Amino acid sequence: RTVYVNGDYLPETEAKVSIFDRGFLMADGVYEVVTVLSGKLIDFEGHMLRLDRSLGELEMAQPDAREDLLEIHRELITRNAIDEGLIYMQVTRGNPGDRDFHYPPEGTKPTLVLFTQSMPGLIDSAKAKRGARVVTVPDLRWGRRDIKTVQLLYPSMAKMAASAAGVDDAWMIEDGLITEGTSNNAYIIKDGRIVTRALSHDILHGITRATVLRFAREAQMEVEERSFTLEEALDADEAFITSASAFVTPVVEIDGEKVGSGAPGPVAARLREIYIDESLKAAI
Ligand code: PMP
């Protein structure tokens, strides 16, 4: 693979970042993942707006102008011949030259890293066809989940718990209410109404969430942005998740119990179809 590090396109084996980089020592960094379909970027603008917000919340410098970031994304698609897959972009506070909890007062040049992941089968996904199975775990993450930091240890632990239970993923619960999935937003459908937690510091503001809710409202579906319990989810007609790479993926089982009929339902299927069709049309 050809990857990008601070201005250079390099073979992945030659790419280097300092051991003093605050991303490495402090998880002092943020990231975005943009999906590529037919060699084009899905919702690029949305992801860049969220990057700006994450950087702003952490008083971190912009690594590059928006047009330059777009150019780098496109160059990596071309150099790695990505048709279907992802582009991972990470910005950290950079290398202050030593370890110190304080942000460097004079600021440091941010470290900018991008790489591609080829993933044929995102659209034609076996998991989307059969539906995902999840277990619930307590949400033990920090209180600013709206900032997309590289601090992903707890979500990794939750994914391991899901694998150990023989299922696909985990939904997290706080104060008796579902927050979100380990790397996706969580939804239920009851009597035709789509229910998903409202935006706050408690969850990541999914770019796919925003787009899917817009399409749902345009299609005259009812949307309720509010928290829901595990019991409600088990009593729902359907459940699903959204993320840049999962699009809309039905959830058919939670903690070993079937949701609805236990098979992917019509509302999630319709939303997935609309999302993929419209995203392909708007891709750049
Ligand atoms: N929640 C969490 C915790 C996530 O990590 C992600 C994916 N990065 C999402 C939700 C979905 O966000 P998006 O739709 O922007 O991929």
Automatic annotation (TrEMBL):
Its cofactor is pyridoxal 5'-phosphate. InterPro entries: Aminotrans_IV, Aminotrans_IV_CS, Aminotransferase-like, BCAT-like_C, BCAT-like_N, Class-IV_PLP-Dep_Aminotrnsfr. Its EC number is 2.6.1.42. Pathway: Amino-acid biosynthesis; L-valine biosynthesis; L-valine from pyruvate: step 4/4; Amino-acid biosynthesis; L-isoleucine biosynthesis; L-isoleucine from 2-oxobutanoate: step 4/4; Amino-acid biosynthesis; L-leucine biosynthesis; L-leucine from 3-methyl-2-oxobutanoate: step 4/4. One of its GO terms (molecular function) is D-alanine-2-oxoglutarate aminotransferase activity. Gene3D superfamilies: 3.30.470.10, D-amino Acid Aminotransferase, subunit A, domain 2. Keywords: Amino-acid biosynthesis, Aminotransferase, Branched-chain amino acid biosynthesis, Pyridoxal phosphate, Transferase. Coiled coil: none annotated. It catalyses: L-leucine + 2-oxoglutarate = 4-methyl-2-oxopentanoate + L-glutamate; L-valine + 2-oxoglutarate = 3-methyl-2-oxobutanoate + L-glutamate; L-isoleucine + 2-oxoglutarate = (S)-3-methyl-2-oxopentanoate + L-glutamate. Acts on leucine, isoleucine and valine. Belongs to the class-IV pyridoxal-phosphate-dependent aminotransferase family. This is Probable branched-chain-amino-acid aminotransferase. It comes from Roseovarius aquimarinus. The lineage of its organism: Bacteria, Pseudomonadati, Pseudomonadota, Alphaproteobacteria, Rhodobacterales.
